[in-house]
Amino acid sequence: MNLDYLTNLNESQEEAVLHLNGPLLIVAGAGSGKTRVLTARIAHIVKQHKAFPNQILAVTFTNKAAKEMQLRVSRFLRKEATGLPWLGTFHSISAKILRKHAEAAGLKSNFSIIDQDDQVRLIKNICKSENIDTKKISPKYILAIIDKWKNKGFYPEEVVLKRKDILEKSFLGIYKIYQQKLIDLNAADFSDLILHTVKIFEKHSDISKMYSKKFKYILVDEYQDTNFIQSEWLKYLTQNILNVASNIIENNQNRVGKKLFTDQEDGELVTLNCFRNVKDEATEIGSNIEDFKNKFSLNEVAILVRAIFQTREFEERFLKIGIPYRIIGGIKFYERAEVKDCVAYLKTIFQPQDDLAFERILNVPKRSIGDTTVKAINDFAKLNKCSLEIASKHLIEQNKIKPKTKLGLNSLLNLLAKWRNDLNKKMNHNKLLQTILDESGYSEMLKNKKDLENENRLENIKELLNAMKEFDNLESFLEHVALATSLDQDWQSEKVNLMTIHASKGLEFDVVFLPGWEEGLFPHQKSIEEKGESGLEEERRLAYVAITRAKKLAKISFSMNRFYQGDWI
Question: Across the chain, which distance is largest between two alpha carbons, in Å?
């Protein structure tokens, strides 16, 4: 039997991997091979035929750990690793369970997962209707209190207040309205994913027993960091099941990563790397950053790109492996207005009760739908306990919308019905978005504005379409976006810097990565076509600026294949 996964394990690690009967607690220092042990255990369980991959639940706190374990186990098991559907974070696994049993939480299986921006917007709307001054009480503070209650396992009706909690008493009323509004919207926030799942387990013993029986082995990474609601989540699954926990003691902070570059008297050599595709490029750069993050502060690491759309691949990668980042002189990919507009259209089609998404697209592009009409729609929906889309239809039927506005609103409603029909007829989700952009007038709106900002927006939308190709269906894509935008809100202040080369002027960093140096992208094809030799000279000056941003290390790379502007370059 091939036991490659035991190679390079020390005696204690091997003992932990081979222990299959009874509970086991692993206490390990940072950098001491904890992930290696956990992944080797999964491989050993499968190799010894103790369980099939889909009978193993492996729970981690970060996407970084989950992705790393998934990759390592796949290398060990190859074909046998087909599956491992239950390896992920508490939130991603909870989302999967909740989709299957949504009705038990008062939701439908196609519920939306709202991001923090939508949470804040919803709280602001509630405060406005309840005459609460948001200038005196921050909506984000209200959300923090609600999140605290959810992490303690409390639905609104279960919160018990102390006499001194006068302020929280008013927040509880908001929590009740907020939670009911989420149900009405067929939506859940990030904390709901675990809370709803725990409540389902609590109230439906048949469901919790089904999962408890399903999982023959449960492995929990960083068990000591579980909060109350996560511990409750596990409690319903770990009866009479092997529970493997990894307790990480923060030490060995001075672990030395591998050397990346050859030492030279005049400093480090600039390196040039070639990759098969852009995904490999982002993966390797992410690995490089991890390898030497003990040597350099993340604040002193930068990735400089020629065009802003290029940040998407790195953002996706960093979210997966848990590297905190900031966008300098720009906005994170899934938070960019045009990307959020596209996602809102898709959400509205997939989930008609998503009022937040519907309200975002209502007058984008312009349809002569002003604030007065939006208020009328909201008031009707609130009074009649229906969605904004249904309210819009009734107001049109009752002739309560002005003729010009009625024309624009009716056009949108007809288009939504048409696009849902396209989706029901199995139109590819990528093709669906292209259809939406064309038929809604959104593409035309951007194309008619001839400026650099709109060119960037078009490039971002093309990059979004490119990203969607990685998903089998619309539901999986929307779930990815929801989880990606909600991850790691509590990242520490040290972050990798992502920006365009133009935005980097005047800045310097210890380490600079320069990806995407292939002809057509950098030097940029449009610059050369429009300005000829002078355009090429500008691109060279830009390259000079990029390289000289590095104080200690500069690493240039290019990809053999990149999908850009609808073509492979």
Answer: 81
Q: Which amino acid is at 167?
A: L
| DSSP-based three-state secondary structure for 103 | helix
**Helix, strand or coil for residue 555?**
strand
Name the burial class of residue 415, with classes exposed (0-12), middle (13-18) and buried (19+) by CB atoms within 10 angstroms of its CB: middle
The pair of structure tokens assigned to 540 is 């060279």
Q: Which long-range contacts (CB under 8 A, 24 or more apart) does 194-197 make?
A: 194/90, 194/91, 194/94, 194/229, 194/230, 194/233, 195/150, 195/153, 195/155, 195/229, 196/94, 196/98, 196/105, 196/107, 197/94, 197/97, 197/98, 197/233
What tokens appear for 434 in the block?
A: 């292209």
- Tokens linked to 317: 């990668």
CA 28 – CA 25 distance, rounded (Å): 10
Q: What is the predicted pLDDT for the residue at 233?
A: 93
Instruction: Read off the pLDDT band of 506 (50, 70, 90).
Output: low
For residue range 98-156, what is the model confidence (pLDDT) as tens digits? 999 999 999 999 999 998 889 999 999 999 888 888 888 889 889 989 999 999 999 99
Q: Angle at the Cα of 318 (from 316 to 324), degrees rounded to 5? A: 130
Outline where DSSP puts E strands in 228-270. Answer: 242-249
Using alpha carbons, list the distances in angstroms from residue 204 to 116, 201, 236, 389.
Answer: 30, 5, 11, 33
Say what the pLDDT of residue 155 is.
96
b (16+ CB within 10 A) / e for 193-205: bbbbbbbbbeeee
237: confidence class by pLDDT, cuts 50, 70, 90: confident
- Residues 477-493, mean pLDDT to the nearest whole number: 68
CB of 37 within 8 A of CB of 17? yes
Task: Output the pLDDT for position 420.
Answer: 96
**End-to-end Cα, the chain, rounded Å:** 45
Rounded to whole angstroms, the Cα distance separating 501 from 523 reads 12
Residue 155: DSSP 8-state: -
Neighbours of 271 (CB within 10 A): 13
| Average pLDDT, integer, range 485-512 | 75
The residue type of 135 is K
Band of the pLDDT at 67, cuts 50, 70, 90?
A: confident
Residue 548 CA to residue 543 CA, distance in Å, equals 9
